[in-house]
Design goal:
about 475 residues, alpha/beta, Amidase signature (AS) enzymes, eleven-stranded mixed beta sheet, two-stranded antiparallel ribbon, 15 helices, globular
């Protein structure tokens, strides 16, 4: 069977074939490893590939499925994780040469839960150094290449996760999201990216950027696949006291396709200001499509959104500096220049400024919560632009210069501050063939409604059917 056929499609589709014995986990894993070997030098999605570990897990999955011990829809499915999720006994660099020889002494809870579900871990994925950047431009290991145009950035910081998912180097991946780092690469690389509610997924064994803003979550090729991966990793973890004890619903069961009677709010101020006209048009068309599915779409006002960039940056630089203080003191010149500058800012922020940012965060959370009392979800663009060239730090939008790195998280970072579940999925392509993302934001711990809306939209539009054409 052709390797191409075994590395395409969705987790849900592959799961049915694996369970029925139509294909084996060993065949599927070997096909993915062969594809990684052939394409990764160009795509730069992986930092560490684990062929022996993966094949051993695949052989175990094959024996279990044949023996009637089927664990569920991830059983025998090859996946990969961002290189800050610890795999015990394996290298974890966090995209930095400072940790180039670091070997994880623990297992991240999310990785353990994937393995408990029978998934096959292929390796760890490239990223913006220490997860602090929206581009995934990495001066140490090379920059992952956008699946739709190799000269363009994939978005970050989970860039390798977006690229691996979009190019058939894994059937699904995990990323982390502190200001948009799952949703931005999902948008720019043309896949689905889900940031769950803060506390829905354990952060144990995940190298932190900012403790109060970090969210682990899946990147997949369909909304249904995101539901399946979230199902496997969600839930309380005694090793992470911030995780919720709320029960985890069956997310797949909520993908009914029927969204009639739901209401979504569209915050137009800020989210449609100084935005690529093609992005705006695609999102407006998506809103119209939801309306056609029986969803009531109404405008909502979120005036505090304009102050999010300052408050978010304040929280991030302080918390990140606290994480990196010792490393920064001892290895300052080993950091990439962009990350080193951001970290250094943390030492300049006063306690009063940090406290004011936290107070603003409470007000923002209240404002978003109040808006979600009258609607079931919010809908916005994910990013204000499609993928810029790697060598293009500034782009022209509406006659004005826009700094790419400073603006990629403009529409995403607020929902890290509120801890809201938020998902990005493709809603169109621009005239250069680059994907455009639609963001859907829900109430705390209501990932089910976010997934339900996204799935219904996805199934009634053609965007998820388009795949990038790659050359060696």
């Amino acid at each position: 069977m052709a390797n191409e056929e075994l590395t395409s499609g969705t987790i849900a589709g592959m799961a049915a074939r694996l369970r029925q014995g139509e294909v084996s986990p060993v065949e599927v894993t070997a096909a993915h490893l062969a594809r990684i070997e052939r394409l990764n030098e160009t795509l730069k999605a992986y930092l560490t590939v684990l062929p022996e570990r993966a094949m051993a897990a695949a052989r175990l999955a094959e024996a279990e499925i044949r023996g009637g011990q089927y664990r569920g829809p991830l059983h025998g499915v090859p996946v990969a994780v961002k290189d800050l999720f610890a795999i015990k006994g394996e290298r974890m660099t966090c995209g930095s040469t400072i940790m180039a020889s670091h070997v994880a002494e623990q297992q991240a809870t999310v990785n353990q839960r994937l393995e408990d579900a029978g998934a096959v871990l292929l390796g760890t994925l490239n990223m913006h150094e220490f997860a602090w950047g929206g581009t995934s431009i990495n001066p140490h290991y090379g920059t992952p290449r956008n699946p739709w145009d190799g000269e363009r950035m994939p978005g970050g910081s989970s860039g390798g996760s977006g690229v691996a998912t979009g190019t058939g180097l894994a059937m699904g991946t995990l990323g982390s999201d502190t200001g948009g780092s799952i949703r931005i690469p999902a948008s720019l690389s043309g896949v689905v990216g889900l940031k769950p509610t803060y506390g829905r997924v354990s952060r144990h064994g995940v190298y932190p950027l900012c403790w109060s803003l970090d969210h682990p979550g899946p990147l997949t090729r369909s909304v249904a696949d995101a539901a399946l991966m979230l199902q496997a990793i969600a839930g309380h973890d005694a090793n992470d006291p911030t995780t919720s004890r709320l029960p985890v619903p069956d997310y797949a069961q909520q993908l009914t396709g029927d969204v009639r009677g739901l209401r979504v709010g569209v915050p137009r101020a800020l989210f449609f200001d100084q935005i690529d006209p093609q992005v705006a048009a695609a999102v407006e068309a998506a809103i119209a499509a939801l309306d056609g599915l029986g969803v009531a779409c109404v405008d909502v006002d979120l005036p505090l959104m304009r102050h999010v960039p300052t408050a978010s940056l304040t929280l991030m630089v302080v918390e990140a500096y606290a994480v990196h203080e010792t490393l920064l003191r001892n290895h300052s010149q080993a950091y990439g220049s962009d990350v080193r500058v951001r970290l250094a800012l943390g030492a300049t922020v006063t306690g009063a400024q940090y406290l004011k940012a936290q107070c603003f965060r409470s007000l923002l959370t209240q404002e978003v919560s109040q808006a979600l009392q009258s609607v079931d979800a919010l809908v916005t663009p994910t990013t204000l632009m499609t993928a810029a060239r790697v060598d293009e730090p500034v782009v022209r939008i509406d006659g004005e210069d826009v700094v790419v790195a400073a603006n990629l998280a403009r529409f995403t970072r607020a929902f890290n501050m509120t801890g809201s579940p938020a998902l990005s999925l493709p809603c169109g392509f621009d005239d250069r063939g680059l994907p455009i993302g639609l963001q859907i934001v829900g109430r705390p711990f209501d990932e089910g409604t976010v997934l339900r809306l996204a799935h219904a939209y996805e199934q009634h539009t053609p965007w998820h059917q388009r795949v990038p054409v790659l050359s060696d």
